[in-house]
Specification:
heterodimer, A: mainly alpha, globular, B: two-stranded parallel sheet, 7 helices
Amino acid sequence: MKESENIRNALRKYRFLNGEMTQQELAEAVGVSRQTIVTLEKGQYNPSVALALRMAKFFKVKVEDLFYLEEEI
Amino acid sequence: MKFNLIRQGWSSVGFYAGLTVFVGILLSVTVDMGFMLLAGLGAFGPGILREFGVLKDQDEFARMATYRAGYYASLFAGIVAVILISILKAGSVDLEHESLALAIILATIWLVSIFSVIHKFWGVQKAVFRILVIFGSFWWVFIILSHIKEPLTFLMESLLVLPFFILAYASKHWPRTAGALIIIAGITCFFLFRIITDDPELILQKVLVFIMFICPLVVAGVSLLLVGQSEKQDL
């Protein structure tokens, strides 16, 4: 059984595509702290399903466009 | 009563809790040990309020960091408790020292939790930088309070605090060098404070110094070495 897999994300890209919004603006939009966005973008933290869905809904994309396994690159 | 401070980023509850612990320890050392209750309130109060759903100051990342810190704290405190029990049961230290043994366990729980949360929030470099600055600043405050009327002693003792700030600066710019220096400083303190002692009266005090001062230094140094120059963080 695989213990953990590296999950990558495209948050920075979608922030940029959304009018270069700041981390603080995204944090406020999805109801978390800026620090959470920072650690998410750095790949130091994997979000809960609920947060991933909230972010996907906010950016109007699918969850797998935002978060994907490293091997899928 | 409900608080929602998520959108303010780093919770101000942590700041006030830390301040309460600091004031509690300061008053218990200078006025009466009963003020340890205040320190306990600051250290464990917010967590209890969060579990009862009264305090809502954390988002999911902060909650994960806190739970993880609690896990590490229980592991470390468990190890320390077993060691202390074996020391006390060995009969080399009399029962008068039991309150100090409890203080050591509490200090372990609190310190490991704080360091773990700080590390998770800020990453190694920022965490070490801020811990060194906070350590140095607290020590300097105690020097000011103790020697404000003796300018020469005040200046001499202030020089002892200077390495904290120099190492903090170095940890930001040269993590590996700073890591090595911090480890050397920790090992030097180990021998300087004569941590290994045969005197049963001093064993627990030495353990307290080891846990509260030398362990954090060595852990910080090793963490910085592991981060390395190539992964220099965005500060």
